[in-house]
Hints:
This protein is mainly β. It has one helix spanning about 1-25, and strands at about 45-65, 70-95, 95-105, 110-115, 115-120, 135-140, 145-155, 160-175, 185-205, 210-225, 240-255. It is elongated and about 95 Å long.
Amino acid sequence: MLRALLSVVGLSALLIGPLSTANAADMPLRTPPPPAPAPTWSGFYLGVQAGGAWTRDRLVEPISPLTPPATGNATTYDSGIVGGGHIGYNWQMEKVVFGAEGDFEATSINSFNNCLVQDAGVGNAAPGTCFAGGYSFSERIPWQASIRGRLGWIWGNALLYATGGVAFADVKTSYATFGAGSGAQSFDQTRTGGTVGGGIEYILDSHWHARVEYRYTSFDTLRNPITSAGTTNFWNGFTEARTLDEHSFRMGLSY
Length: 255
């Protein structure tokens, strides 16, 4: 009985083997899928960005109506939120990407100070200390923008890039005195300067890119000749020269 059962099993194996081999031979061979195309950086893009900025407002008084010419200086630090949009175009040559980009941002930068330090050697009673009196000066930047070039190197799905160009900002300055001889005067000027920085941009998918960027910006000196704040105003007859530097970090998303 056992010998008969083994014979049946062996015969079945002999019959099934050739059939299986024939069926496998008839099956079409599967070719591996083609590799995914390398991501391209060429073309137009637009996006949004937001971050923070840290500013240094340096004030000096190059012109004084007094004899001896009592003048002062001050340095004011401030920080604020920046955010807006950008648009640009890239060209890609193998691993190198270069292009142009412009951006426009609103800012919350609004510095305030009421300590003008007395300069030494110009007739001041207490050089190195604040002038006494109820007065203040401020600086506000409602918006800023830039037009820049970009140059980068592709590293996998990331782009490491440097950027630099021309910066613009609306700078509003004001001066006020309180109490006896009170008065105030304000100025509104659009300033230009230079901006440089760098960042890293990463391809999220075929349409979306994310970035992190740092920039340093220095604006041209602006001059405020104070002439209409009242004849007894603390500031009247002085010219205030102010320079503005900015460090900023941004995160952005581009399409």
